[in-house]
Amino acid sequence: MYPTASSRLPLGLYALTAGAFGIGTTEFVIMGLLMQVAADLQVSIAAAGLLISGYALGVFVGAPLLTAATQRMPRKAVLVALMIVFTLGNLACALAPNYELLMTARVITSLAHGTFFGVGAVVATGLVSEDRKASAISIMFTGLTVATLLGVPAGAWLGLEYGWRATFWAVTAIGVFATVIIATLVPADRSAPAPLSFRDELRVVGRPQVLLGLLMTVLGFGGMFTVYTYIQPLLTQVTGFADAAVSPILLVFGVGMIIGNLLGGRFADRRLATALLGTLALLVLVMGAMGFALHSRWAMVLFTGLLGAAAFATVSPLQLWVLQKARDAQSLASSLNIGAFNLGNALGAWLGGVVISQGLGLSALPWVATLVPASAFMVALWSLALDRDRDRASTPQDSQHAGECA
């Protein structure tokens, strides 16, 4: 459906990266604006924090619904429409006169998130040759990692200097830019996809291998967010860093995200199954070792960066694995996997809160978190075993058929 590139990556792929940057910025930037939003709209910090939960819920719910609603549209048209929704949603955030309308605008904006990344991943893999599909996914997701590294701190600075609405005006401008370059640079579909019915798509994503892939994503990122959600108190109350040191250390995490994301894509292009197991195993090792590093400042800086690298090295293998297991329903499966990333975010934050509230303390977080991606690793082994059993079951039949033909 899409042209491939043999040497240089197509410009359309970088257009998708720009859209991912804008969406990633608007998802996470609210974390640095909670106090300004709460004061301006006269709500509590806890209520302002629900703006994050509302967005995550919108991603989880909106991904399959919007994917189903747009399944008969050309994918380029879907991406442009989603960026328009994203842009208008951020414009509504900038203009929202009260908390209720701001929450509504955040949820509307979030609806575009899951489907954009889901459909965008399918489009990205169609823009390149077979041996570069995982790298294409990782490059698109680089927009998300760069948003965490640069977009979120810049948005927080804008909010501090000019008010939180200025941040949403800036993200609106990013949305306009991304919409224009996606419309210009992403090649048009040669024909509209011939989709399955939604019932048939649900049947495809209900296959055991697809469900296991989604479960790996939830567990892999659930473990990461069990630690990362509480990284500030870990660094300050356990390791002993000053509050001012947290932001520079989080930049190290962001750099690790970018490096891990790109390396994970390259490894997955070579051997997907090996990359899947290897990146999940690396995440387990990093989290386990982090438990020993909590009281060493230099070690915690190192392992914060390694945590970002290990976690985002899993993104491309997990996304490509789900795409391959759902060949007939890639857009829906891909969008559901984006929802699974966000579900892992929510479950990880919840699990970390349970650990703390039960009196185990902040120091227990890495140890408990290690068990979650370890479970994802076991699920991956199970999935690979199912593949081997299927291959063994099909081989005698193939041999018998060949003998009959002879």
Automatic annotation (TrEMBL):
Residues 12-391 form the Major facilitator superfamily (MFS) profile domain. SUPFAM superfamilies: MFS general substrate transporter. Keywords: Cell membrane, Membrane, Transmembrane, Transmembrane helix. Pfam families: MFS_1. CDD domains: MFS_NepI_like. It comes from the Bacteria. The chain crosses the membrane at residues 12-39, 45-66, 78-99, 111-129, 136-160, 166-188, 209-232, 244-263, 275-294, 300-323, 335-358, 364-386. This is MFS transporter. It comes from Pseudoxanthomonas mexicana.
